[in-house]
Amino acid sequence: MKRFIFVVFLLLPYPGFANELDRVVHAIEAEWASIYFSAEIRDKENAYTRLLNKTTEFAKQTHDSPELMFWQATIIASRAEHQNPIEALAAIHKAQDLLIKTINIKPDTLDGSALITLGSLYYQAPGWPIAFGDDKKAEQYLKKGLQINPQGIESNFYYGQYLLNKDQPEEAIEYFKTALNGPVRQEQEFADSSLKEKIKQIIIKTANIESKSQKKQIASL
Fold first, then answer.
1. CATH entry, 2-149, from 3.10.50, 1.20.58, 1.10.10, 1.25.40
2. Which helix H or strand E contains 116, and what residues bound it?
3. pLDDT > 50? residue 14
4. CA–CA separation, 8 vs 188, rounded Å?
5. What is the DSSP string of 82-110?
6. Where does the signal sequence lie (predicted)?
7. Structural domain boundaries of the chain?
8. For 106-138, how does the pLDDT look when each residue is reduced to its tens digit (9 = 90+)?
């Protein structure tokens, strides 16, 4: 345990969190967000790989905490977007396994984030026989995540994306607007603010908003 604290102190000096695990989780999320939302990082696959290696090491030191297991899955799924089809297919199956394991240990991990992420995987992944895509399971997990965090930015965003994927744009926009009203976490201001900016652009595109006044109205949300 002393070695774990020492490693965290050296690599992740984020004061003010309740314990060492919180520091690690918040630092991992911050680094993930900097990779995911940054347009300046050209080699995102390797950036995700470096972060995954760190996360996996921390997970071993904490006996596979559900929070770190969730972040392993998230990083693997994010990296899959930058891999070839064969690697990506193996990656999303690995992410699915980790998320199911996380949920079995602690269903409300990180305010339902594991449920939400698994739900989003189910509607984005190809269906059988290629992969495990399943709209019914997607809706089931996304709604469970919403029940845990009904006003959350991510929970409403991903359910809105699911509805958009189901060709229900009007309903999707309502969830996107709820996401925009969700609280921004002080310790993850960049991640939450970046996601809100992404949501605003999706609303403008989905609603076919062209007038400057309407765009300004959305931007002010």
1. 1.25.40
2. helix 109-124
3. no
4. 18
5. TS-HHHHHHHHHHHHHHHHHHHHH-TTHH
6. 1-18
7. 2-149, 168-221
8. 999 999 999 999 999 999 999 999 999 999 999
